[in-house]
Amino acid sequence: MSRIDRTKLKRLHEREEKRFVVEHPCSAQLYARAEHSLLGGVPMNWMKKWAGAFPVFVQHAKGAHFTDVDGRDYVDLCLGDTGAMTGHSPDVVAEAVAKRVREGITLMLPTEDALFVGEDLTRRFGLPYWQFTLTATDANRFAIRIAREITQRTKILAFHYCYHGTVDETFATLDGGVVGLRRGNIGPPVNPAETTRLVEFNDLNALEEELKHHDVACILAEPAMTNVGIILPHDGYWKQARELARRYGALLIADETHTICAGPGGCTGEWDLQPDMLVFGKAIGSGIPGATYGCSEEVAQRISARIHLEDCDVGGIGGTLAGNALSLVAMRATLENLLTRENFDRMIGLAKRFNDGVSLEIKKHGLPWNVQRLGCRAEYTFCEQAPWNGGESAARADFELERLLHLYALNRGVLLTPFHNMALMCPETTAGDVDQHTQIFAEAAAELVPA
Ligand SMILES: Cc1ncc(COP(=O)(O)O)c(C=O)c1O
């Protein structure tokens, strides 16, 4: 196995950083100006984390590509970290949205599009009732509130190194079996040990031990973890976890916001998960803000029994702009035309191509890495074998190496997600786009560990 020479890694990074600055003069200028009006020089704090001395400023994006203000074209494998999984500005959504913008954007009243969307979601995921929010974070927060309310239990159960949006209960980690604050947690309202039970993914014994306390309102889970590399469930894991949740009276909430990449019905559809509630955001409206949570007949009845008309606007669930006409028309156009079996089949084929190419280069260069895939999402991690839980995967994270590989790709016209090594395919991604990444990955590997 080849080891990475850290001095060389540093040298390569300095070389790539210089190249980046020279080749992006217009982005550099905008960033210098932004530092006077935007906190940290960016409209949202995560944008600081892109590889490179500053983020590239975007001019135009369409399909699987975007152009920056310096006129450079990129293959976008990040796709807005799934918000643009249906491709940037698909015509069918752009047209529907443009029409709706002229006909009323938000009214606090329903439009017929909401019915179309609800009916479509029921066919995809098998749950009968749906509500809408602006973000997947909100959808998760509201699903958690409902679970707490109807079970009259205080805790939620989540997985070590999960990510479900800015949901307070989930910014927790396990340290020697004890739940504590996740590193970087800004202004936590309470210690998450008060709100959260945490277990490693794929560990049924640990799951049962925590459920035995009989205080868990819900298990909030991505059916496969996607935010600490891709971690697939063991065969039969969800069947047994589902059974344990029922036995101990906890609801199962499937957060399909990223795992929708598995197919038109996400992992719920592909693996017959039968969750009690389901959350889906980001790509649902091709990036027009909107998300949804759905629930089973039983959950719906239990909610109705506890929520009274007079109080329904002050219960901590909802939002003025939630379920607005613009979100719903974007969802309708996206579900009807883009998140189709036919598109998924193409996209999944491309993710397989990505994996085959990267896997070959990993082997060729004797790197102790692996590449994993879930539907149309692919990701390489710096673990020799595909990790089975968040702890294992996080232990092999390598921030410096990740930054070099991202910058190396960016300088050669390919954008990966800023937080880990994820590549996502959209309906307009081509085999040529995938091969461009593979070629760049091969060049980087050859520089890091010459044969
Ligand atoms: C699985 C999952 N759920 C929910 C969210 C939250 O989405 P948003 O930031 O759009 O609220 C994310 C964001 O990355 C996510 O990965």
Poorly predicted segments? none
By DSSP, the count of extended strands is 16
Strand order of the largest sheet: 4-12-11-10-9-5-8
How far apart are the first and last residues' alpha carbons, in Å? 12 Å
Percentage of residues assigned to helices: 25-40%
Structural class: alpha/beta
The ordered H/E elements are: HHEEEHHEHEEEEHEHEHEEHHHEEHHEEH
What do the pLDDT scores average to?
97
Q: If helices are DSSP runs of H or I spanning 4 or more residues, what is the number of helices?
A: 14
**How much β-strand is present in the residues?**
15-25%
Rg over CA atoms, rounded to whole Å, is: 22 Å
Cofactors and ligands = pyridoxal-5'-phosphate
Largest sheet: 7 strands, mixed
Characterize the overall form. Answer: globular
Keywords, please?
alpha/beta; 14 helices; 451 residues; globular; 7-stranded mixed sheet; 4-stranded mixed sheet
What does this structure look like?
The protein has 14 helices and 16 strands. The model has no long low-confidence stretch (mean pLDDT 97). 40% of the residues lie in helices and 16% in strands. The relative contact order is 0.17. The longest helix has 24 residues, at 341-364. The chain has a seven-stranded mixed β-sheet, with helices on both faces. A four-stranded mixed β-sheet has the order 1-2-3-15. It is globular. It starts with 5 loop residues before the first helix and ends with a helix. By secondary structure, the chain is an alpha/beta fold. The chain binds pyridoxal-5'-phosphate. Pyridoxal-5'-phosphate (PLP) binds at residues 81, 135-137, 140, 163-165, 222, 227, 255, 257-258, 281-282. The site of pyridoxal-5'-phosphate has 15 residues, from helix 5.
